[in-house]
Amino acid sequence: MRIGKDLVAAAATPVVLGILAEQESYGYAILQKVTELSGGELEWSDGMLYPLLHRLERAGHVESEWRTSASGRPRKHYRLSAQGAAMLAEQHRQWTVVGDVLDKLWSAPGPGPSGVAPAGA
After folding, report:
1. pLDDT score, position 53
2. Which are the contacts of 19, defined by CB distance < 8 A and separation ≥ 6?
3. CA distance to 4, 39, 64, 83, per residue, from 78 (Å)
4. I want to staple 84 with a disulfide (CB 3.0 to 4.6 A). Which of 51, 61, 96, 121 is the partner?
5. At a CB cut-off of 8 Å and minimum separation 6, what does 16 contact?
6. Which segments in the chain show pLDDT lower than 70?
7. CA–CA distance, 40 with 7 (Å, rounded to integer)
8. Rounded CA gap, 20 and 76, in Å?
9. What is the pTM of this model?
10. What pLDDT score was predicted for residue 1?
11. Which residues form the Transcription regulator PadR N-terminal domain (predicted)?
């Protein structure tokens, strides 16, 4: 299944903030976590993640710090700021409303998300 670009873009901020709410992380690990959490359905690229991280950092939602990895390579670690935690809470409320609306629509009698009415409807 291919998830549409607009939906991926809309969900990117709460997904990254949610991952960083669990623990601080760095770019490659965030990409791996997204793939893991989605069961492989979402595969983000560096070109998508790093601009988002930079925007979140400029907005004060995340903070970063350069560290040296075990291999000796520099690695930028990101963590959620207090402002980012508030943003995540707001995003959670908004996405819950959207999810509830879709659940109600798709569980109601009628054609449903496939556009095909169930037998006997």
Report:
1. 98
2. 25, 30, 33, 34, 37
3. 27, 23, 4, 14
4. 61
5. 30, 49, 52, 53, 56, 62
6. 111-121
7. 16
8. 13
9. 0.86
10. 79
11. 16-90
